[in-house]
Design a protein that fits this description.
Layout (H helix, E strand, L loop, with lengths): L44 H5 L4 H37 L9 H24 L1 H4 L14 H7 L2 H10 L2 H4 L19 H11 L6 E3 L18 E3 L53 E7 L4 E2 L2 E4 L5 E7 L5 E2 L2 E3 L5 E4 L3 E2 L2 E7 L5 E6 L7 E6 L1
Parallel strand pairs: 3-6, 5-13
Antiparallel strand pairs: 1-2, 3-4, 6-11, 7-10, 8-9, 8-12, 12-13
C-alpha cells in the first residue's frame, strides 16, 4: 500500500472500531499583503500647534527658581546643623567643658564610682576597712600600692580568682567575687568596684542610697559625700622599692646576719626567751577581732618594760609599734600571725603620751602613757 498525502501514517487504516481515518493538516499558503503605515508614539498635529503663553513661561521660570532656592536653603541648613552638632558633641576648640561627649563620660564615671562605693561598703569594708585602711585584709589606700600595683587589671584578676591569686595561699580568707567564676558580682559591678578603688582624692562624690540612687543626708540634712583614695600627683621616691606581690612579705622581719648578730633595735624577742634587759613591768596586750585589748596602757618613765603581746586572730598578722607625740617611732615589734604570743622588750621612755598601732592594720590603735 502506498502512502497517501494527508493521511496519518501512525493511525490504523481501519479496524474493528470502524473509525474514520485521521487526516494530517498541511500548511496553507497565504497571499502576500502590504503593511499599513501608522504614526506610533506621536502626538496629534493639534498638540504641536499649541504653544506656551509668555505669562505661563514666566511662571514656570519663577517656580523653577524658587525650587532651586528651597533646595539650596535646605542643603545649607543641613550643613550648618551638622557642623553645629559636631562641635556640640566634641566641643569647641579652646573652650573647656563644651564637649557633650566628655561631659557625659565624666558623669558616667562619677556614677560608676558612687555605685562602687556602695558595693565596697557592703562587701569589702569588713575586711579592708571602711577607708581602705586594712583589717583582716591588706591596706588598699596606700599610695605606693595605688600608684601602679593596684592597677585595674590586677584588681580584676584578684576579684576573679580570690585571695589565692595574691599570695598563692589556697586557704586565703578572700573569696571569689566575679560572677564569671562563681562569685556574686556581675561584670558591671566589678567595673564599678574597680572605679571606686581607683578614684582620685581630688574629687568629691555623693553618697547615694543603693536602691533609690537618691542622695543620703546626715542628721542635719546635709548631703553625705566621700572622696577617693588615689592621689593623682603622687610619685614614689627615687629609692623606693616596688610593692611586693604578696602583701604579707612587706612585714617580714629581716634575716639575721651571718655573724649571728642580734636583730635590729626594736625587734621582738621570741616567746619565752629572756628580755635583753631586766624589765620591772610586764604589760599584757591582746589582739582579737582586729582590735587591741586594752587600748590604754601605762608604764613608768625612765624604766624599760616588757609587753606580752598575744595575737589571738588566727592566721592574721599583727604587731605593736610605739610612736611619740610627734609621730616618730620609738619602738617596732615583730609582726607575726596568730594564734601566738611574743614578748616585746621596750626600752626606757621619757614621760609623755605615746600611741601604739599595728603596722599591718593601722586602724588598730591604742594609747601608752609614760609617767
Amino acid at each position: 500500500m502506498t502512502d497517501q498525502p494527508g493521511r496519518d501514517q501512525s493511525a490504523p487504516s481501519g479496524g474493528s472500531g470502524g473509525g474514520a481515518p485521521h487526516e494530517r493538516p498541511l500548511p496553507v499558503p497565504r497571499p502576500a499583503t502590504d503593511v499599513i503605515p501608522a504614526d506610533r508614539f506621536s502626538a496629534p498635529p493639534s498638540t504641536h500647534a499649541a504653544s506656551l503663553s509668555p505669562e505661563r513661561a514666566a511662571q514656570i521660570v519663577r517656580q523653577s527658581s524658587s525650587a532651586r532656592w528651597v533646595g539650596f536653603l535646605a542643603t545649607l541648613i543641613v550643613v550648618i546643623f551638622s557642623i553645629a552638632y559636631y562641635f556640640y558633641d566634641l566641643g569647641v576648640p579652646g573652650i573647656a567643658g563644651s564637649s557633650r561627649l566628655t561631659a557625659e563620660a565624666q558623669a558616667q564615671a562619677v556614677t560608676s564610682v558612687e555605685k562602687g562605693y556602695n558595693i565596697y561598703q557592703a562587701n569589702c569594708a569588713r575586711c579592708h576597712g571602711a577607708q581602705g585602711q586594712g583589717g583582716v585584709g591588706p591596706v588598699l589606700n596606700d599610695q605606693m600600692k595605688l600608684f601602679v600595683h593596684l592597677n585595674p587589671q590586677y584588681i580584676r584578676n584578684v576579684l576573679f580568682s580570690g585571695g589565692r591569686y595574691v599570695c598563692g595561699n589556697p586557704k586565703s580568707l578572700m573569696p571569689v567575687w566575679d560572677q564569671a567564676n562563681g562569685g556574686p558580682l556581675n561584670y558591671q559591678q566589678i567595673n564599678d568596684l574597680i572605679a571606686f578603688i581607683r578614684a582620685p582624692n581630688t574629687e568629691e562624690y555623693v553618697t547615694r542610697d543603693p536602691s533609690t540612687r537618691e542622695p543620703m543626708t546626715d542628721a542635719s540634712g546635709k548631703e553625705m559625700t566621700f572622696k577617693g583614695w588615689r592621689d593623682p600627683t603622687f610619685k614614689p621616691a627615687p629609692a623606693a622599692t616596688p610593692v611586693p606581690d604578696c602583701w604579707t612579705d612587706a612585714f617580714k622581719s629581716p634575716a639575721p646576719s651571718a655573724s649571728g648578730s642580734a636583730a635590729p633595735s626594736g625587734s621582738a624577742a621570741p616567746s619565752g626567751s629572756a628580755a635583753p634587759s631586766a624589765a620591772a613591768t610586764v604589760i599584757t596586750v591582746k589582739a582579737l577581732n582586729i582590735a587591741f585589748d586594752p587600748t590604754a596602757i601605762e608604764a613608768a618613765a625612765g624604766q624599760a618594760f616588757t609587753i606580752e603581746f598575744d595575737n589571738q586572730d588566727a592566721g592574721i598578722p599583727h604587731n605593736m609599734s610605739i610612736s611619740d607625740a610627734g609621730g616618730q617611732k620609738v619602738f617596732t615589734g615583730e609582726i607575726f600571725p596568730g594564734v601566738e604570743k611574743r614578748s616585746y622588750a621596750v626600752p626606757a621612755l621619757p614621760a609623755g603620751s605615746y600611741t601604739f598601732i599595728c603596722d599591718v592594720h593601722p586602724n588598730m590603735t591604742g594609747t601608752l602613757t609614760v609617767k
